[in-house]
Every structure is written in C-alpha cells, then in structure tokens.
From TrEMBL:
Membrane topology, as annotated: Multi-pass membrane protein
Protein name: AI-2E family transporter
Biased composition (Acidic residues): 356-367
Coiled-coil ranges (or none): none
Statement: the UniProt record of this protein carries the keyword Transport: yes
Broad class of the protein's primary localization: membrane
Entry's Gene Ontology BP terms: transmembrane transport
Transmembrane segment boundaries: 21-40, 46-64, 76-97, 162-183, 223-245, 251-271, 278-295, 315-342
Length: 380
C-alpha cells in the first residue's frame, strides 16, 4: 500500500524532484566553496607566500638537483643556489632603480616641455582658451588634492601596513622555499598520509604531475617574459625613449600575467613615449608591442609551453578576471599557474591508468621540463 509520502512524491513532476535534489546539493557545494574562499582570503599572506614558494621551487630545483647529482651536499647546494639567486635579484633591482633615478630628470624635462606645448596649443590653437582659464583649471586640481589630503594620508598609512605584510610574506616565502628544496618530497609524502591508503599512491602521482606542469609553466613563462622585455626594451632604447630599462623591467614582471600583463605594462611605455617623443614615437612603440605580442602568442607560447601546460585562452581570461576580482593583482598573477597545476592534477587523479596519463604529460611538456622535476629533493 502506497504511503502518503509516496503519493506526494508521485504527485510531483520528476523534473521538479530532480531540480530540488540538485538545488540543495548545489547549495551545499556553494556554501563549502564560499567557506573555502573566506578561509583563503583570511589566510591570504600565508597562502600567497606558499604559492609563490612553490613557483620559485620549481624554478630553482633543477640547479639544486644538478649540484646534488654531482656530489654536493644537499644543504650546501640549496644555500649556494639561494644566495646566488638573491644576489642576482638584488643586483638587478639596484641596477633598475639606479637607471630609473638617472632617467627620471630627463623624463620630467620631456613631460614639462610636453605640458608647455599642450598649454600653448590650447591658447593659440583651435580651442582658443585664455591663459586665465587654464590657470584656473590647474588651481582646481591643486585645491582638489588639498581637499583630499586626509584620504591621501590614510592611504599612506594603509600602504605602510601593506609593506609590513609584504615583508612578513617575503620571509615566510624564503623559509618555505628553503625547506621545499631540502625535502619537498618528504613533505608531500607526509601530507598525503591523511589520504586513505587505497587512494594515497594515486594522489601522490597526481601531485607529482601537477608540480611537473607547474615547473614547465614557470620556466616557460620566465623565458617568454625575458624575450618580451628584451625585445621591447631594445626597441625603446633604440628610439631613445627615457626610462627604457625600468620600463623593460616592468614588462618582464607584467608578462607573468598571461594575455594582459605585458600589454598593460607595455601601455605605460606608450604613454612615456607619447609624453617624451610625441605621437609618432608612441605609435611606433605601440606597433612594436603588438608585434612582440603576436610573436609570443603564435611562436613562443606554443613552442616553449607544450601541450601539457597549454590552456584555452578563454580559461586563462576567465581565470585572470576571477583572480583579479577575488585577490587583486596577486590573484591575477597566481591564478594561471594554479590552473596549470590542477589541470594536470585532476587529469591524473581521474584517469583510469594514472601512470599512462602521467607519462603522456611528461612527453608533452617539451625540453624545458626535466624528468626529475616532480621530486623536490631526495629523501634524507
């Protein structure tokens, strides 16, 4: 005999029952995702530091493994690579800052001449403005800055707090990289002990494949960023654009955000060229940047990335947008390597034969990825 509850269920259309079942499950998944995002934002300094440490580990690991294979003590190899990397980074940053300080006066002079030329054009040109109107507009800008002085001061204090967070994150990142290089495999094996024994081996293989793709992405992106910076920086230097080297450095950093990073930082070079040299040099700079972007998209990316870390442009754009909305610039910077990692991780985890899937990823990565990159250090 059919119960009252059964009769009520039968009275509901199957499509409605299915929609209701999916709805409460999606609500639970959405709540879990929201809780995870809240936790990641709350622990932002820690999460970002560890993520950057993973990328740096992927870049430095081949050098440490090379020294280790030829008889160097693992700790000594890590210390040597870290000191050498910090020395190179400090030297490059000091050189860039000095170049910026040396080139800033020239840029100021060029901008001053451009402003004076624009003022003369507004007075004597088709606009036919009076000098009093232009001076009044300048006074309005100055008064606006004075009226918002309190907000500017608050922003400076907020910036000081941000600098403290950056220093904390940098120290955490430094120590994390050291320990990842020393015994990253042991750390991963310890973490995966939380996984049930039946699935533990597959999760470890998936993590190794994800790190393998992350390493390929990090090194390939570094190479692409270097080519972008050298090509555009050389063009700026040949044209005599002020601050060519600092602008090339910004383009190098911006290229780590795929699709839009180098384009946005390159736009700054166009603005500097416009202010310093005029519209003709600005158009030439824009053409140079577009040409380099085309070279990157059609030659460099397919050649050095390989199919294993190749992501659909739509996935990249959506990922960068979502990362920027959720975590600002740092989110846009880290979201694509995260997608590359989880792309390989899920492929191996969901494959019926994870060994074959991992081998296919190794074959597709190309010559930039070492065969031992998925092992952050031998067991000690």
């Amino acid at each position: 005999m059919t119960s009252a509850a059964g009769r009520d269920d039968q009275a509901v259309h199957p499509l409605v029952r299915a929609a209701a079942a999916w709805s409460w499950r999606l609500l639970v998944i959405g709540a879990a995702a929201y809780a995870l995002l809240w936790l990641l934002q709350t622990m932002g300094v820690v999460v970002v530091s560890i993520a950057i440490a993973l990328i740096l580990t992927a870049l430095l690991l081949p050098a440490v493994d090379f020294l280790d294979r030829y008889g160097a003590v693992r700790g000594g190899a890590v210390a040597f690579v870290m000191v050498l990397g910090l020395a190179i980074l400090t030297g490059v940053m000091s050189f860039v800052v000095n170049q910026f300080v040396d080139g800033a006066p020239q840029l100021v002079d060029e901008v001053t001449r451009s402003i004076e030329g624009a003022r003369a054009w507004l007075i004597n040109g088709p606009a036919d403005l009076s000098r009093d109107q232009i001076n009044q507009a300048g006074d309005t800008v100055i008064d606006s800055l004075r009226d918002h002085q309190a907000q500017l001061t608050t922003g400076a204090l907020s910036t000081a707090g941000t600098i403290a967070e950056i220093l904390t994150g940098a120290l955490l990142c430094l120590f994390t990289v050291i320990f990842f290089l020393l015994g990253g495999r042991n750390i991963w094996e310890f973490v995966t002990r939380l996984i049930p024994r039946a699935q533990r081996a597959r999760v470890r293989e998936a993590g190794a494949a994800g790190f393998h793709s992350l390493a390929g992405y990090a090194r390939a992106t570094s190479l692409v960023a270097l080519v972008d910076a050298v090509a555009i920086g050389s063009g700026l230097a040949i044209m005599g654009i002020p601050l060519a080297l600092p602008l090339a450095s910004l383009i190098f950093l911006g290229a780590f955000v795929p699709v839009v990073g180098a384009l946005v930082t390159g736009f700054l070079a166009v603005i500097v060229a416009l202010l310093a040299k005029g519209i003709v040099y600005a158009l030439i700079t824009l053409a140079l940047i577009i040409a380099v972007m085309q070279l990157e998209a059609h030659v460099l990316q397919p050649l050095v990335m390989g199919r294993a870390v190749s992501l659909h442009p739509l996935a990249v754009v959506i990922g960068i947008t979502a990362g920027g909305v959720l975590a600002g610039v740092i989110g846009a910077l880290l979201v694509v390597p995260a997608i590359a990692f989880f792309n390989s991780f899920v492929r191996v985890l969901a494959a019926q034969d994870p060994d074959s899937e991992a081998d296919s990823l190794d074959d597709e990565d190309g010559p930039l990825v070492d065969s031992n990159v998925d092992d952050p250090g031998p067991k000690r």
